[in-house]
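Repro:
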Amino acid sequence: MVKHLLIRIEMDDYDRWLAAHYQHTEDRKSYGMMDGPVYRDIDNANAAMFHIRTENLERAMQWFRSDVFKEASHRATVRGREFYIADYGVATTTPVAAG
């Protein structure tokens, strides 16, 4: 079953973080992660939500404990990170009316 990992990241410099993030695309793939979109925070230009899909959550989480990841985070000026995990989502083809 595919797991969806959403990570909210705060950094000192968004552009620097984004460049470092894309430099490690192949590293994330080697840990079984498939990149999804990056959502930039409209209220904080130096924060973003990153969406990853994986079938093996434990393997994916090993990336976040690796020395390569830790060094990349340091170079990318990351100040904080929050993880959110979803097993599945509910898709809809029609808008949901507000009550």
